[in-house]
Structure formats: structure tokens, C-alpha cells
Amino acid sequence: MSVALTVGPLFVPRIDGISGTRRSVCKKNHHWFGFNLRNGSVLGSGCLVKPNNICCSFSTDDDPCVQQLNDARIIYSVSPALGHNKESHPECSARVPAIVTALDKNELTPKFRGSQILELANFKTATIQDIASVHEKAYVFGLEKAMEEASDSGLIFIEGSGPTYATSTTFQDSLIAAGAGMALVDSVVAASRNTLDPPTGFALIRPPGHHAVPKGPMGFCVFGNVAIAARHAQRAHGLKRVFIIDFDVHHGNGTNDAFTEDPDIFFLSTHQDGSYPGTGKMSDIGKGKGEGTTLNLPLPGGSGDIAMRTAFEEIIVPCVQRFKPDLILVSAGYDAHVLDPLANLQFTTGTYYSLAKDIKRLAKEVCGGRCVFFLEGGYNLESLSSSVADSFRALLGEESLASEFDNPAYLYDEPMRKVREAIDRAKSIHCL
């Protein structure tokens, strides 16, 4: 059975007979109070009773929250969307808890690190107006209305024949995810007023966002979390120029489309050539006033650590330096890992360590250290969690432990001739 919604051709929910997980959604003063107990701690975002959780409200430079921020190296938020779940689906509710477990196991949480690492608590959900800064209101209201059908049926698909599903909590979970990213932008900006080396933000959130187009959901994504955060940075903080780096294995077509005509937001994507959704051609450089502020670098299948390091130094660094952003946002997809089941690149945990380390260095050089990472893809739970943990080590300035996870036996020779041709072509198109 299908349900017709008047929200445009990209949003045509269909009903699936599978009974989804139901969970109550409670709101109080627009804050999230969803809990899942594990080993005596609380997973999720909201009122968490843990050491070094901080509120996302800042009043003055003498505020204790601001003082904590000044001393921190990482500030992260957690929004696992436990009710947004389909057990057999790659983008399931196990993803964020797997990361949180790995961070705890590797002593990369506030409990072990004191003031070095902060977890953001009590952040506000995004509003309809926040979401509408990127998405058409018809889509937003249509999704909200579709929650009635999702509640009755347990689970619906919301992308026509595509893979994006919804449960009764998807709309609220998606508002929370977007709010978590916006709150991290607020926190990093607040810290940057008082220190030249503010903490890096990391949003451990789902559903992911970079495929969601202005008119609807796509590719497991509901709302464009990074895109919404970019607009929030401009409107709430006056950070005019934003640079978005997307290293997910799939092209971030939703983010690309949202800013294709915007000269103040630069979108740069590295992704596997020919992979889903088939967009992200090198010839797509933006339109109108935004021409030249989109750079797509499709990498040939089999590209790995050498290819990405080369692309970073020869493409990403000069682009960021030339654009001179006020803020760097990162669509951090961990599905380019050699163990990930959905694509065919050869990134390793060590590759992600290097990316995090180098992006932090670049942000410190060009925009006062203002940088926030947003979780996108990554569907092998072991490679996902180990890679995020090593990203945290990089942001702390500590040594990588990738060698304890990465197995060279999985790797093969990278197609460096094709990589070289792709990088040289991108450099020529963008005069790098």
C-alpha cells in the first residue's frame, strides 16, 4: 500500500509490512530526553549524567561552560536515533552505539580524559525554520505528517523505490540530529572567541544527511545535517564563508545541490567514481554565482591511502587556502574503508587518522581552528568504530593505533596512474 503526499516527486512514501521498533518521544523545553541504558551509562543526547557533560548555552566569557570549552580538544554530541531502525538495513541503530562503545573501550571519553574531551548535553532540536533553510517546507511538513502512517505500520519507505525508510520517530530523530550539529557549531564558535585553538566538534549522529536533497530524502538520508549547520553558521554567527569537505565514499549530492549557486559555501567531495548516486562528475563546478565553488573529485575504484593523501595535499589544501573560509565542516563518511561492504575503495583506519589530523591543522591555519565533523556513512561496525576512535586520537594530537586494527593483507596495489590523471584534471579545471 502506498501513501500519496503533496511534497513533490522525490518524496513518495510507501508502506512496508515490517513492524518497526517503537519508542516514545518526549519533549521538554525543546530538549531531547531519550534514553537507552548500557552498563550504567546513558546513550543518546539530552540530559546525561556523566562527568564533563556541558550545556550548549553560553552567556558570558566567564561562564563555566565557556571556560571548559577553552580547555577542551574535542567536543562531541551523540544522537543515535534508536527508534529510527530497520534491523536488516545497513543504516541501522547499531551504528552510533558501536562508536560510543569503542570510544569508551579506548578511553576516549570525558570519564577518562577530564577536560580534554567534552560531551555536549541538553542541546535544542532543530526547528522547522532551521530545516527550511535547506529543504522545501512541503517536504518537511510532508515527512511530519507521514509519521502517522509510520506509527500505524511500524515502518515505511519514504524515497519511492529507494532505500530510505522511516519509523514513527524518524522526524523527531532527524530534528535532533540536525540540532546536535548546530549546537556544536555554536560551541566551537563560542570557544574561538577566547582561544586560537578551540576544540574540534564531532557530531555522532544519524540519520546521515549528505544525500538528502532540498525536495526530499535520498540514500538513507533525511535532512542535510551539514548543509543546515552551514546555514546556521552564516545566520546565527555571521560566518560568511563556509568550506565543506566530504570524504564519504559516495558523492554528497544533496549538499552539492543545496549550494550549487552559492559563492560563499565551497563544497568539495572526494568519492568513488561511478558509485551511488551516480552524480559528482568533475565537470560539476557549480552554477551562476556559485560557479567555481564546487569541486568534485571522483577517485577510481581501488584508490586508498596514497590516493587520498595526494588528493589532500594537491587539491584540498590549496582550495581551502584560496577560499579562506571562516569555518570548515566535514561530512565524515567512513564507508571508503576497505572493509566496508557498500563500495570499493581502500581507505584504512590510518587514512582516517591522517584526514582528521590534517583537516584540524588546516582549520587552525585558515579559520582560527573552527571545524566540526559530522558522521555520514560507514556500515562495517568494526571499521567504523575503530576509524572514528583513531580520528579522535588525531584531534587530540596523539599517536595513531591504526596498526592494531588495519590488516595489510586486505590491501592491493592502488591504480595510481588513473588517480594521477584524475587529480591532474581537477587541478587544471580549478586552476590549482
Automatic annotation (TrEMBL):
Presence of the UniProt keyword Repressor in the record: yes
Domain of life of the organism encoding this protein: Eukaryota
Molecular functions (GO terms): histone deacetylase activity
GO CC annotations, alphabetized: cytoplasm; histone deacetylase complex
Transmembrane segments: none
Coiled coil segments of this chain: none
GO biological process, one term: epigenetic regulation of gene expression
Stored Gene3D superfamilies: Histone deacetylase domain
Keyword tags: Chromatin regulator, Repressor
Domain Histone deacetylase: 89-394
Name of the protein described by the UniProt record: Histone deacetylase 14
Organism: Noccaea caerulescens (Alpine penny-cress)
